[in-house]
Design goal:
Helix 6 packs antiparallel against helix 7. This protein is mainly α. The longest helix is centred in the middle third of the chain and has 21 residues. It has a two-stranded antiparallel ribbon.
């Protein structure tokens, strides 16, 4: 099977695993009997439902914050579980998320930012607008993917995203990004945010990435992502690898292979990956040691992105990573565990589950892709 054919076995409309096609081969890793996809869906639904009703997440105009840890991964992964639940359309909880994002896009000029300079200090308004514009575009363009048509709301979200792109300064080509010193999404995470923007653009249907009016912005984005590549932490380079599968020519094949090789070199003896080995010199704020055991976030994200980049399912290290995921789902809750990079947290608490929310989403994407 060629690399092109292997890529076709895992089509992710708009970067999300909304549909898979092609016959399962003897080398297929993820047997649906080996992990409980319905339990994973129930966990993700339960967590997003809690997030949408949590008072801390509430925002202006009866909306809620679109969180990097719970809402965004949910939007990426939940459509991949639709077939297992015999669903023909977005679930009620998915619909609430989409309605929330759409409402904030339509009211962009009226709705207050997630965090403002007045309440959280300068430059939180700019950081919030930049971050939200990318996340809104990522979600709405992603859900448009299977239709082959870019909706007016998704196009508006992309327009607002481009309007927030920085045109001058050291970060030219990127977006202002929320900085709360919370890795991996809100702690020195501007580069990560730019990879999400690239995924949003490359995922939008109708060959949106080639439209004339965005080419100046695309040029700046490409330059921002590629020029400082060597200095980025490995987990962000993995995100760039994913983006490069959506934007042809973003990376040369040798650059892609270099990221693949570096990521695989971090595999642990049990077949999994630990996020702690992908984040450079980052330290927890409470001075506790980072968790070094394999976790669902790093293992799910790495095995998912490697498949997107054309690594065959019969590649031994990929097989071991996928096997780790199948062995480590919490059968009682449906989730995969992952650990905070910022503080030692109680994994049974709602805040302590944030990393597991994202881990479960990426584990689902990886295993569904391997099917």
């Amino acid at each position: 099977m060629s690399k092109f054919e292997r890529l076709k076995t895992c089509i992710l409309a708009a970067g999300f695993a909304t549909s898979l096609f092609g016959q399962e081969t003897p080398s297929s890793i993820a047997d649906s009997a080996s992990w409980n996809d319905q339990a994973a869906a129930a966990y993700l639904d339960r967590r997003l439902d809690w997030w949408m009703g949590w008072s801390v997440a509430a925002r202006d105009h009866e909306t809620f914050c679109v969180s990097c840890h719970t809402a965004v991964p949910y939007a990426m992964a939940r459509p991949a579980l639709r077939a297992a639940l015999v669903e023909r359309a977005p679930s009620t909880i998915e619909r609430k998320l989409l309605d929330n994002v759409t409402k904030r896009v339509r009211l962009w000029k009226e709705v207050q930012p997630f965090y403002s300079d007045e309440t959280s200090g300068v430059p939180k308004t700019a950081e919030s607008r930049g971050t939200e514009s990318v996340l809104n575009a990522l979600i709405l363009a992603g859900y448009d993917g299977p239709t082959g048509h870019l909706s007016s709301d998704a196009r508006l979200a992309l327009d607002y995203m481009w309007a927030q792109q920085l045109k001058t300064g050291e970060a030219k080509g990127a977006w202002s990004w929320l900085q709360f010193h919370n890795s991996p999404w809100e702690g020195d995470s501007q580069y990560y945010g730019a990879t999400l923007a690239a995924i949003a653009v490359g995922s939008a249907p109708g060959n949106y990435r080639s439209t004339g009016e965005i080419q100046e912005g695309m040029k700046l984005l490409r330059e921002y992502l590629v020029q400082p590549l060597a200095s980025q932490i490995l987990i962000d380079r993995v995100m760039l690898l994913w983006a490069s599968t959506k934007i042809p020519g973003l990376l040369k094949r040798a650059q892609q292979q270099s990221i693949i090789d570096r990521a695989l070199s971090r595999q642990q003896a049990d077949g999994g990956f630990s996020l702690s080995s992908f984040i450079g010199a980052w330290k927890r704020r409470d001075h506790t040691p980072l968790e070094t055991k394999s976790d669902g976030y790093a293992t799910g994200l790495v095995t998912f992105v490697l498949q997107q980049a054309g690594v065959g399912r019969d590649q031994p290290q990929l097989k071991r990573g996928l096997a780790w995921l199948m062995r480590h789902q919490d059968k009682s809750e449906g989730r995969w565990l992952a650990y905070s990079l910022n503080k030692q947290r109680d994994l049974s608490s709602d805040i302590g589950r944030f990393m597991s929310d994202a881990a479960t989403a990426y584990a689902v994407l990886a295993l569904k892709c391997a099917n």
